[in-house]
From TrEMBL:
Record-level GO BP terms: response to toxic substance
Keywords: Cell membrane, Lipoprotein, Membrane, Palmitate, Signal
Gene Ontology CC annotations of this record: membrane
Keyword Signal listed: yes
Pfam family, one: Entericidin
Name assigned to this protein: Small secreted protein
Origin superkingdom: Bacteria
Family: Belongs to the EcnA/EcnB lipoprotein family.
Signal peptide bounds: 1-18
Species, as recorded: Paraburkholderia silvatlantica
Length: 45
């Protein structure tokens, strides 16, 4: 039983870390898109 709980905790930890990396990547993509829009708006003035 202890082995099953340990396996579950390791799996849950890996899933949480994976999700954090995904959200960080998505945040960087959104940020890059915002910078591109800002630059385009500045050039269009």
């Amino acid at each position: 039983m202890k082995r099953l709980i340990a396996l579950f905790l390791v799996t849950a930890s890996l899933a949480a870390l994976s999700a954090c990396n995904t959200m960080a990547g998505a945040g960087e993509d959104v940020s890059a898109g915002g910078h591109a829009l800002t630059n385009s708006a500045e050039k269009a003035k």
